[in-house]
UniProtKB/TrEMBL annotation:
<dbReference type="GO" id="GO:0061630">
    <property type="term" value="F:ubiquitin protein ligase activity"/>
</dbReference>
<dbReference type="InterPro" id="IPR001841">
    <property type="entry name" value="Znf_RING"/>
</dbReference>
<keyword id="KW-0862">Zinc</keyword>
<dbReference type="Pfam" id="PF18102">
    <property type="entry name" value="DTC"/>
</dbReference>
<keyword id="KW-0479">Metal-binding</keyword>
<dbReference type="GO" id="GO:0007219">
    <property type="term" value="P:Notch signaling pathway"/>
</dbReference>
<dbReference type="InterPro" id="IPR013083">
    <property type="entry name" value="Znf_RING/FYVE/PHD"/>
</dbReference>
<dbReference type="InterPro" id="IPR039396">
    <property type="entry name" value="Deltex_C"/>
</dbReference>
<dbReference type="GO" id="GO:0008270">
    <property type="term" value="F:zinc ion binding"/>
</dbReference>
<comment type="similarity">
    <text>Belongs to the Deltex family.</text>
</comment>
<keyword id="KW-0963">Cytoplasm</keyword>
<dbReference type="InterPro" id="IPR039398">
    <property type="entry name" value="Deltex_fam"/>
</dbReference>
<comment type="pathway">
    <text>Protein modification; protein ubiquitination.</text>
</comment>
<dbReference type="InterPro" id="IPR017907">
    <property type="entry name" value="Znf_RING_CS"/>
</dbReference>
<keyword id="KW-0863">Zinc-finger</keyword>
<protein>
    <recommendedName>
        <fullName>E3 ubiquitin-protein ligase</fullName>
        <ecNumber>2.3.2.27</ecNumber>
    </recommendedName>
</protein>
<dbReference type="GO" id="GO:0005737">
    <property type="term" value="C:cytoplasm"/>
</dbReference>
Length: 196
């Protein structure tokens, strides 16, 4: 997913969560493979690539744009919304952040699978421990949200397309926040999107 529409349309097949196919028009071509965009990614420098082509480039070049060589920074296709958090205390030592996200229903843009069609928004929440590492992850999640990377619009074969998490794990219960490796898993997913 990315922004912008090229001079002609390429059609790709995507799968909704129900397993059915949905047609997605993502105009333009990738400058790396010269083919139609597959899961288009747009960088802050405005260059666009297939997600897999960009991953291969990052593996060989590092975190640089393969066209202009500026440091990698993604801009996603997340619809406009809001992210808030509050701090809660369970006890003197047990503190955590409760994060809430709200994206209203809307109309898809050229960056989404079916431009001009409606999508169903999302109200979601997650938890992070109020520890030094938890604070760091909260800061990274805020950056990712500002760069429109936390959510995306998913095409479905039945009913309206909908907003879903974009491969960045979130803890929906307090117990999961203390699971060994959980925060590192979130940081790894954010690193894969250029947030570190």
């Amino acid at each position: 997913a990315g922004r912008g529409v090229g001079s002609y349309s390429c059609f790709t097949q995507t799968r909704g969560s129900s397993g059915g196919k949905a047609t997605a028009a993502e105009g333009g071509t990738c400058p790396l493979c010269r083919g139609c965009f597959q899961k288009k990614q747009r960088l802050k420098c405005t260059h666009e690539f297939c997600a897999e082509c960009l991953k291969i480039s990052v593996d060989s070049l590092g975190l640089l744009c393969p066209v202009c060589h500026k440091p990698l920074s993604y801009i996603g296709d997340q619809p406009e919304g809001e992210m808030k958090w509050v701090e809660y205390w369970l006890s003197f030592r047990d503190r955590y952040y409760h994060i809430t996200y709200l994206i209203q229903n809307g109309i898809q843009t050229g960056a989404h699978p079916n431009p001009g069609k409606p999508f169903v928004g999302i109200r979601a929440s997650g938890y992070l421990p109020n520890t030094p590492e938890g604070k760091e992850v909260l800061r990274l999640l805020k950056r990712a949200f500002d760069q429109r990377l936390i959510f995306t619009v998913e095409a479905t074969s039945e009913g309206a397309d909908r907003v879903v998490y974009n491969d960045i794990p979130h803890s929906e219960n307090l117990a999961e926040t203390s699971t060994p490796g959980f925060l590192e898993k979130v940081k790894a997913a954010l690193r894969a999107k250029g947030i570190e």
